[in-house]
Amino acid sequence: CVTSDVQAACRGTTVTQELLKEGFHRDLLVKVELGEDAGGCTVAARIRLPPGIYVDPYELATLQQQNLTKAVLIPDVTDVEAPEYLATALVLVLYLEEDPRCSCCFHAAVPVHVRYHRPAEGSHQALVVLESPEALLCCCHSHLAAECWEPAEVGAPCSAESVGPCQWHSTTHGPAREELMLEVPVGLREHSSLVCALTLLTTLLCASLILAATCRHGHFS
């Protein structure tokens, strides 16, 4: 009964995510609906990005300069050219904006990009699993109920404008998290020899054309 009373008092926080657009360049839309009014608190979502998806730090910096997105990328340096099998996972703390129509609703979007994957054997698709984001609260001027929220290990500032880290809290009672599955088109491993041969022939042809044009039109002293 005590557990039921606590869960009733800690009304669930709902976190949803959606990938917009098509192809390798998407927008990740995150929505958080709190069980109570979070007046005076900063609401964010901690998103764990697997190696198959990344956020471009240069694009993110440009969006923040234009005040279109507020986020912290951990680590803040990533190789945007690396394929999935050479990349590492990332953590993104995305600061959410309040929905003017709902005092408990928050949302934000950020561009994400899919990395190239290894060719697969017998399949044209590879799966990228995106875990459900974790809702975070930072309340500088109010107190959160200890039975509803617990300190979270997040080394991110309270806002995109501040520098020093602050104490974030995550909900202790929420619905089961749902994963987002993304299908990525990949090449077939059995086509590797054909692709390599065509690439080599194309490279030799282009090099020959460049050399011929240089000898025909070039000026040599």
TrEMBL record:
GO terms for cellular component: endoplasmic reticulum membrane. Pathway: Glycolipid biosynthesis; glycosylphosphatidylinositol-anchor biosynthesis. It is found in: Endoplasmic reticulum membrane. The keyword Disulfide bond does not apply. Keywords: Endoplasmic reticulum, Glycoprotein, GPI-anchor biosynthesis, Membrane, Transmembrane, Transmembrane helix. The chain crosses the membrane at residues 192-215. Pfam families: PIG-X. It is a single-pass membrane protein. Its main location: endoplasmic reticulum. GO terms for biological process: GPI anchor biosynthetic process. Stabilizing subunit of the glycosylphosphatidylinositol-mannosyltransferase I complex which catalyzes the transfer of the first mannose, via an alpha-1,4 bond from a dolichol-phosphate-mannose (Dol-P-Man) to the glucosaminyl acyl phosphatidylinositol (GlcN-(acyl)PI) intermediate to generate alpha-D-Man-(1->4)-alpha-D-GlcN-(1->6)-(1-radyl,2-acyl-sn-glycero-3-phospho)-2-acyl-inositol and participates in the sixth step of the glycosylphosphatidylinositol-anchor biosynthesis. Probably acts by stabilizing the mannosyltransferase PIGM. Belongs to the PIGX family. This is Phosphatidylinositol-glycan biosynthesis class X protein. It comes from Onychorhynchus coronatus (Royal flycatcher).
